[in-house]
Amino acid sequence: MILINLSPDEQVINPGDRIAQMVIQKVELVEWKPVEELTETTRAAGGFGHTGKQ
Q1: Is the pTM of the predicted complex or chain greater than 0.85?
Q2: What DSSP letter does each residue of 2-54 carry, written as one string?
C-alpha cells in the first residue's frame, strides 16, 4: 500500500484503520491481429474525438 498526503494537515493512520478497498476484476486476454492498414468507418468520418453532433 502506497499512501501520499496531499493536504497540509497531518494525517494519522492507526493499526486496524481501514484505509483501502480491494476490487476483484476479471482480466481479459486478447490475441492481437496485425494488419497493414485500417478500413474506413462511419465513426471516424469527423476525425479524432469527433462526436458527430453539429
Answers
A1: no
A2: -----SSS-----TT-------------------SSPPP-SGGGG-TT--S--
